[in-house]
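This part of the workshop introduces the protein records we will be handling. A record pairs a protein's sequence with a compact description of its fold. As an example, a complete record with its sequence and its structure tokens follows.

_____
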Amino acid sequence: MLSTQAKHPYILLMRHLFPLTGIVLLCCAALTLHAQERVLRIDPNTARGGTSSKVYEDVQYIPLETTKESLFGKINTMEVTEKYFIISDETTNAILIFEKNGKFHAKMAGGKMAQYGWPGSIGGMTVDREKNTIVYYQFNKSLRIICDFDGKELKREKLDSKYIIAYNTRFKDGKVLSHNFVSRDKKDTIMHEFEVYKDTIRTNQFLPIHLHKALISTDFFYSQGIVQLTPTNSKEYVYYNKVYSDVIHRISSDTATVAFKVVYPMSMTLPPGFGTDTTLDNKRIEFLQKNKNTIYGAGYITDVKNILLFRLLSYDMWNDTNNSFAYNLQSNTLFCMEKITSDSSTYFLPVATSTGWSRGGFHCVQDDYCYVSHPSNVMFNAYEANKAARKVVYPPALQQYFSKGKSSDNPVIVMFKFKDKF
């Protein structure tokens, strides 16, 4: 005999409606997520240019002091604090601290030579602005090392991680996001590309991968710059474009969502399934070499104001030419940074062109300023070209740099701010 509750027509109706309601809610949630995903149509060949005075509100050049102790190769990652530029350099396997006027302050050496897999190699660096400490990680050891702004080591701690930690960024809430190198394994084990830490304790994981379906190591050859996490102006999230994917994720300490789907011209687009089809193993690099203008990803992605900054990568773009872009998210206008020509407002010196970046990119964004750098040989080449073509009056710091420095000196940091409308 049925219970009185089961016989009631309203109860019977609800039993049929609840599953349907759940399906509707799930569909709505999916539609909401899809609606948040914005499509960016990017054609590098139609990107605009301009002059520095029309695009930049302010540009400043800071030569970094060169001494025997402070000499380094290139800026791989950089953090800007109230008093310091804090720089990590893979070539010398060191973290260097310079005052905001470029004067050398301190240095932390990670080991003899930075080779991936060496226990002493520095794999990532973040700065805790509240505690005035630098936290860096040793590649392959899941070791967290804390130093002060004078380069003095304060503590060493083990992380709760099985990964090879490659890149890190600290969010505004104090949590740290680690991007981890994941390569194929025969085991059908699920691991994650990203972990979030509060001190040494893991609080979150994002973007799971079945190891037996992961890319093999040889297919990562041209992916440098893709995984680089570049802090955004808000310090609340970073962008990530997985190699061979047309999706850009926005990752915070709590969530990982799809922010953009990028559509390139058909002639520059990868074939469907290029990053997931296992029959293409060991064939991807050969394809990119034969199809030199095919774009396989975007790297060094960051934002400031309403502008999305990034670098595009293809075999042709590997040589640092016309691959850095600014996308105005309000006007849907694409600018090529190499097409923004220097003028008298920038002393006819390079600003944000990628020539000489050696596959580097936008280092960071802080207080609406973007930070890049140029090797001294690039700066001195521009200086010599100016001498031959025009009379330029440089500010005191640059005048001293050009009169007493040389092309083998440390890089020059360039900080610039976009105009609100350009």
Notes: The domain at 47-418 is CATH 2.120.10.30 (Neuraminidase). The two ends are 77 Å apart (CA to CA). Residues 9-36 form the longest helix (28 residues). DSSP finds six helices and 25 strands in the chain.
